[in-house]
Write a structure and sequence with these properties.
single chain; three-stranded antiparallel sheet; globular
């Protein structure tokens, strides 16, 4: 298999639909081992539309280049209440990626 699976977590702001189902936002990503490109991603937002939108924002970014590119994509294109939680979960996911690189 040429991919790895990672997850990042953050707290959701109160008053969100997803917060009634989960206390945390989770972003999972399947990452290409060689180039660290996000092949696929998902998140625990309440709507399928929101989940698909986040996947489109993240797909194709390489974690070898850091997390600032995906963070900027979220800042500029995702204007919902969960924006800061998505960014925090992305940063946590990147931290997990960096830890997995050290373990290789």
């Amino acid at each position: 298999m040429n991919t790895i699976f990672l997850a990042g977590h953050s707290r959701l702001p109160s008053g969100m639909a997803a917060q009634n189902m989960y206390e945390t936002l989770t972003i999972t990503a399947e990452i290409d081992k060689q180039y660290a490109v996000i092949v696929s991603a998902s998140c625990t937002l309440a709507t399928v539309h929101g989940q698909e939108f986040v996947q489109q924002l993240l797909k194709g970014h390489s974690l070898q280049n850091g997390i600032e590119g995906p963070v900027e994509s979220v800042r500029h294109h995702y204007l919902g209440k969960a924006g800061n939680a998505i960014i925090a979960a992305l940063k946590d996911l990147h931290k997990q990626y960096e830890t997995s690189i050290v373990l290789k």
